[in-house]
């Protein structure tokens, strides 16, 4: 074999193996899910109809296609449960993202302004909880938030409240859980941008008479916006589909799409409907991603325009 | 640092660590009530080590984590090499998107759609299907870790080897791989802990006989707070802590030509 051929073969393998795997186990499953979202549930193995008849040739295919319908989507559009779940998923994710931005911005700013010796330690401190089990970290909050839990106990002892607050099994619990679990995803992109800011810019602002707060609002914050946008997206997308947090910290009335999908699949065994919920969830997520990409492209173009 | 920024940072770190500390402290609580301190005791650890189903689930989790992290380690390293070394190839944007999308995709979607694929092609559900699922979502994480190392790599050694007539594979095995090895191991360890941690995807794609540790813990957590789970959690945190230390030691060595 010639050298050039082996070289091309090698490149093909390097690029192709991960591609093949991800197409097979990430892209194709979505197509299957889309197909099953147009099927009907059945008491069979597998529990949905129609199933493609590979031996049936063209006729089998057309029969298969005719048996598909929009029944599950009609159901989702018609039943208030799914609409409410979609709206409240978006609401929880948006509210938690806003809280994260409020907490994450000063945290990342403080990290970026810490001494060079401290910065890697602080970054590690923010990352380490991300390595420990998600389930365990959310479980840990149950003992803190319970009516007879540590937080209520401390507040009662301090005399700040008269009776225990309903923190667990409520929307407050879900918001605390979301904020807690996704804080590193907000802080790290913000820190990445802020630590690269030229300190001369802040010195210039100070020389021109701006106080610390003003310099932060007019220099640091606008320059950190790309980090804020990236952090918001990294948090918002998985939060919309979150399951563990609403399940453990939310009440029985806490509706989120991830939880609805889970119960359609595991409790009701309605795979086609669960698939339709998955498609709906995916659409809700893809929209902000596309908007973000558009904004990023526009910014890049604007930056290139200025560079010329 | 301004006092405001300093207190924000302190509060954020306290917020991140307080629940974990509470959990660890109460795993040594003699009382069965999680909120009442009944004195120091290690009895929950003794109960834990006598809990057969839990230990069996832990073994399943370890197997799955090792296998899936090995696959994700290879695939993620290859993908990082392709993105770093192949320039602006056709479909590069889509390639990057496909690589990183599984990292943010809600787990319920990944889990459900993989299960539907496995059922559709008639693959028996069990340890193998969980391994495939975990390798799929961990590949992107490995690619990020290895990609960061590749970006900061000094290319002159590889160029010198190529100039001296070494074939690309030989350059890779002799020069590139030893240089990026610490980041490959770090990526492997990250994939390992992600697999050990996953509840949602494993619940969808596992079959009878393949219960992972998080699945077992979840079924008990649903019944309420239980000191035995605190003990199990503390051990898992300790294990992951060791893994993190190993990973950060490996990445810290990169400046020394490791």
Structure characterization notes:
The complex is a heterodimer of chains A (308) and B (258). By secondary structure, chain A is mainly α. Chain A has a single domain, classed as MetI-like fold. In chain A, strands 1-2 form a two-stranded antiparallel ribbon. In chain A, α4 packs across α8 and α10 packs antiparallel against α13. The radius of gyration of chain A is 25 Å and the shape is globular. The model of chain A has no long low-confidence stretch (mean pLDDT 87). Chain B has 258 residues and is mainly α. Chain B has a domain of 173 residues: MetI-like (MetI-like fold), CATH 1.10.3720.10. Helices cover 76% and strands 0% of the residues of chain B. Chain B is built from 11 helices and no strands. Chain B is globular. The interface between A and B is large, with 84 and 81 residues.
Please summarize what this structure is.
With 308 residues, chain A is mainly α. Chain A has helices at residues 3-36, 57-67, 71-78, 80-113, 119-131, 134-145, 150-157, 171-194, 199-207, 212-240, 244-249, 257-266, 271-307, and strands at residues 40-41, 48-49. Chain A has one domain: MetI-like (MetI-like fold), CATH 1.10.3720.10.
